[in-house]
Amino acid sequence: MLLNLNKPWIVMELQDVVKIFGLETILIYTALLLKKRIVVYHHRLDSLLWFVRALPAFMWHRQDWNIIYPYMQLTNIEISELLSLQTYVAGFRDAAVEGRTELYDVFVNLPAIEITVAAHAKEMFAMTKTHKEIAVFMTRQAENTDLNDNLFIKEVANKTNELLRSLRNLAVRNEHGKEGIKLTELKENKFAPALENFLWNLAAAEGYTLI
Fold this sequence. Notes:
It is built from eight helices and eight strands; from the N terminus they run ααβαβαβββααββααβ.
């Protein structure tokens, strides 16, 4: 059952995010995982704030709530601030923000329950079998009545850690002992192009040296 996002003082949990967007939640998850830019629109400030504040819990392993800019306006100062950043989740009440594609890689229209990937980011968000598996996993776990939100977050974190362990298995150490991902060795695995591109970008987001 979808939440009434126009209800005042709605309390948003991570499970609710997945219940609202279903399999398309993977676009939000991927944007967070790859440290991309997410803009969320809702005309109600309370609904906007709860939604935006819930999203970093998808990346529990990072414990980074500093990426949140819960309520921004389309002023020159605030736009300049966002344009100086590489990653964020920013909330807006002005629907005109949808046309400001320089501000986002993923746009979430919360009242319309729509997620849009900006044209310049399409290649980054090419879906793979891995994405589909995670999307199905999250939707099933969100509907599991035996899980409260804390347990749901833990299940998502475990799934993310599985992915990160797979990435770690691809890493090599350079002469300084630092882990890195070598493109030539990544190609030797003969992954599908979309998966190879995803893993390469994930390695960059996770701070691996790219060789």
